């Protein structure tokens, strides 16, 4: 977890865009992932980006990757109250640990009406 | 497909007790993982398995044991529960063949409290 850094909290108003940022240290990561965790639930894969891509768009979600700066961001357009959750950035898979993922501590997103 | 299932969902243990957390996947994935999530923290890898009969330690294996007798099941054993093992435990699985690794799918988690 200490190799993947995220801000802990973000609060936005409903209808605004949310941007969640992440920095990582392992330049050999093949993929970078965003997982969503709702209260009391498991982790749900939101989206992922291959390390040789700069951007990936999937409906309201836009992922930007700056490989030079090892910076990843997740933009959620038209944020809804149902988007309130914890968002985890993860890098991997790591061959040294059975292709497991390395997670950040998560960003708690609060969407207010 | 049910995906990755975990039982129990909740459990309270006394210090020194033992228990087994169950994990089953029906996607014919060869790789399986156990992570723990402490409050306000990311997930830490406890153990992983690359196939039936093969397991290895992750980042935080102390106090735990695993086995993988079948492709579907990957139980996690706590022999002498300690308060430091209070956490949420997630099982995950993925498929890997050659250089291709598919995404990891997670179970709903087991919330364990040791008092």
**Biggest interface in this structure?**
A-B, 24 and 27 residues
DSSP helix fraction of chain B: under 10%
Order of helices and strands of chain A: EEEEEEEEEEE
| Low-pLDDT runs of chain B | none
Count the beta strands of chain B: 13
Distance between the termini of chain B: 36 Å
Biggest sheet statistics of chain B: 7 strands, mixed
Low-confidence stretches of chain A: none
Structural class of chain A: mainly beta
Q: What is the alpha-carbon Rg of chain B in Å?
A: 14 Å
* Average pLDDT over all residues of chain A: 91
Level of helix content of chain A? under 10%
Order of helices and strands of chain B: EEEEEEEEEEEEE
Terminal-residue CA separation of chain A: 32 Å
**So what's the oligomer here?**
heterodimer
Q: What is the alpha-carbon Rg of chain A in Å? A: 13 Å
Strand content of chain A: over 45%
What can be said about the biggest beta sheet of chain A? 6 strands, mixed
Q: What's the total number of strands of chain A?
A: 11
Can you describe this structure in just a few lines?
Chain A is an all-beta fold and 113 residues long. Chain A is 0% helix and 58% strand. In chain A, strand 7 (61-66) and strand 8 (71-76) form a beta hairpin.
């Amino acid at each position: 977890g200490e190799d993947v850094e995220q801000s802990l909290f973000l609060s936005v108003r409903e209808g605004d865009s949310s941007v969640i940022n992440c920095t990582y240290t392992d330049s050999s990561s093949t993929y970078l992932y965003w997982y969503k965790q709702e209260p009391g639930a498991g982790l749900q894969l939101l989206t992922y980006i291959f390390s040789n891509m700069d951007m990936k768009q999937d409906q309201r979600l836009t992922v930007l990757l700056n490989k030079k700066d090892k910076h990843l961001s997740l933009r959620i357009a038209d944020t809804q109250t149902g988007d309130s959750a914890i968002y985890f950035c993860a890098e991997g898979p790591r061959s040294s640990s059975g292709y497991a993922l390395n997670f950040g501590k998560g960003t708690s997103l609060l969407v207010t009406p | 497909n049910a995906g990755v299932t975990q039982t129990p969902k909740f459990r309270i243990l006394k210090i020194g007790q033992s228990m087994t957390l169950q994990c089953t996947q029906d996607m014919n994935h060869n790789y399986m993982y156990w992570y723990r999530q402490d409050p306000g923290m990311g997930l830490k890898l406890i153990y992983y398995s690359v196939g039936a009969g093969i397991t290895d330690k992750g980042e935080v294996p102390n106090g735990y044991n695993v086995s993988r007798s079948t492709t579907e099941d990957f139980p996690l054993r706590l022999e002498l529960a300690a308060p430091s093992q209070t956490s949420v435990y997630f099982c995950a699985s993925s498929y890997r063949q050659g250089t291709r690794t598919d995404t990891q799918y997670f179970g709903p988690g087991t919330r364990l409290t040791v008092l």
